[in-house]
Amino acid sequence: MKTRFPLCAAMIAGVLSAAAPAQAVEQVTPPQLKWSFAGPFGKYDPAQLQRGFKIYREVCSVCHSLSLLSFRNLADPGGPGFTEAQASQIASEYKIKDIDDKGADIERPGRLADRFPSPFPNELAAKATHGVAPPDMSTLAKARTYSRGFPWFVFDFFTQYQEHGPDYIAAYLQGYKDPPKGFTMPASGHYNEYFPGHVTAMPPPLEKDRVTYDDGSPQTVEQYAKDVAAFLMWAAEPHMVQRKRIGFQVILFLIVLSGLLYFTKKKVWHEVEAPRELAHGQDPSKTSI
Amino acid sequence: MSGHAIYQPQNKFMQWLEKRLPIGGLIHSSFVAYPTPRNLNYWWTFGGILSFMLGVQIVTGIVLAMHYTAHVDMAFNSVEAIMRDVNYGWLLRYLHAYGASMFFLAVYIHMFRGLYYGSYKEPREVLWILGVIIYLLMMATGFMGYVLVWGQMSFWAATVITNLFSAIPGVGDALVTWLWGGYAVGNPTLNRFFSLHYLLPFVIAGVVVLHVWALHVAGQNNPAGIEPKSDKDTVPFTPYATIKDGFFMAVFCILFAWFVFYIPGYLLNGDNFIPANPAVTPSEIVPEWYYLPFYAILRSIPNKLLGVCALFGSIGILAFLPWLDTSPVRSARYRPLYRQFFWLFVIVCVGLGYFGSKPPEGIYVILSRIFTIYYFAFFLIILPLLGIFEKTRPLPNSISESVLGAKA
Prior knowledge:
The structure holds two protein chains of two kinds. Chain A is 47% helix and 5% strand. Chain A is mainly alpha-helical. Chain A folds into two domains: 28-69 and 115-238, Cytochrome Bc1 Complex, Chain D, domain 2, CATH 1.10.760.10; 246-287, no CATH class. In chain A, the strands form two sheets. Chain A has a two-stranded antiparallel ribbon with strand order 1-2. In chain A, strands 3-4 form a two-stranded antiparallel ribbon. In chain A, helix 2 crosses helix 8 (221-236) and helix 7 (164-173) packs antiparallel against helix 8 (221-236). By secondary structure, chain B is mainly α. Chain B has a single domain (28-403), classed as Cytochrome Bc1 Complex, Chain C, CATH 1.20.810. Chain B has helices at 12-20, 23-31, 46-67, 75-84, 89-116, 125-148, 152-163, 172-180, 187-218, 237-262, 292-300, 304-316, 321-324, 336-356, 363-389, 399-404; strands at 35-37, 234-236. In chain B, strands 1-2 form a two-stranded antiparallel ribbon. Chain B starts with 11 loop residues before the first helix and ends with a helix. The chains are: A mainly alpha, B mainly alpha. The interface between A and B is large, with 58 and 56 residues.
């Protein structure tokens, strides 16, 4: 009966090797970039988020909504690090549709409590303009990911790789290319190396020097792509810094608690274990704590 | 069974209460003096862990329900509002989402432990069947909870799973319309799922009480698979089992915290961060990891009705396990052949889980068929025959002997 195990191992190995090429066709794996917010002590880089916000504001927001975020979020701890006054100033530069106290439609300057206004009144209007409704960006960095496949997902558990979304978005924004020979492009659409299926509705949104950076960062597509991907990660997971900080405390506490409980357990079980230890030739007085 | 202390309250109030409602004595006999076999290993700590996880789910769930809106237009955004605007809402939500995964992880370990050590055998058949009922309720609860998020995967999982009932000949379509409360998955569906998702955990808690009751009547099984014969074979639940369970629960929580605080994206499907859209089907509809083996079984059969039968059969068959396993020996320790088939069964279940996550094409279909055949053969052919043909190893005379060796 011992031979059963190698047989199984061979079967499983066969399955896995067959799995690899099937996935490669589906989607090109985006390169893994270095992110300030990766790992157990990761934090968003406020300067990068501010640059990313500038790109969102000047480029993305023409077509994409960010409907789940409010202006006040810009001043939240662990985020882009705007002061409340700065966030107020930014809000006031937006026009918000509202009604006055007589019920008439008005437009007023934005306030901290307002959500970011959407470029289209509804999804149908967006669809009518663009053919496909541009997705809301609030959760985009968690919605756009890619499959890591076996065995990588096993390693990811230990390495805490969680940056699938920003890696994909940064790669996608730089992934516009001429279609390879023999690739039939539909009438509308753009070839993108990283988009699943390669035909994306969005034209290349970024070009060199399109957005002016005030902090001297390079005004390249590569830098833009990274900055806006980081901004979108924050938009999708605004409490990540707090989460990781509390997580460190919780896990440290649990390790200490487990250790204490382990030694308590050993102490409690000592009398019960002693006959077994004697039977196995150990000295219970030496195994006690 | 053991001569452990009987509850005699010192406190005047407790003496007064005990004469009227002997709850102190009940707790004492169930969780303090209750004799547990001295040879239980750490696989036996998962019962306590499961009770703890049920508590975590109920507590986080009740608070989440205070902030959740069960309406198709608002559900997704209310979950996002919990993540963004509710104080520590992200913590509650991730605890609840990963709590479900940890709950299932623990229940699978608990079930495989029962399978390995023959914990379902006489006199523990009812205990085992109650466990199968809890597991079924957990699956229903977990599925409906997943739908509440009302993302793309929520919506399409609800559509696919409820559509399974349409395979029933004659009444199928009418039944599905009744389940939906309409002609498609919609607001009535979401509302009733929320209602049931809130109800079922308390039903689970009720069946858990029966499960623990049945356990305390039959007593715990143990790695040797033989009944305790004397006081030397058992130790009182408190402090021995309490401290051991407590220690391993803390270790288990480290894993739980690792998911919640560091890798919350690990098991969550990206498509579920897109609001539900009945007009757009995701490229792949995949259930949560804990349903994947059954999903693979469902898809391995080309006929829909037979596939659905296999799906429910694969869970229902567990209830008959006490009678399908004909061997008088409980523990796999003394069943050399069964042990091999058991580990192969574990590999098959994990394998089916992997295939369930893959598109149903090519090699995956063939392998899931082979694995599905083994899954059923394990229960219907291997277990009944092993009891007849397997030559088991001699059992120890007592639990003490199994711990100390024959010379003690």
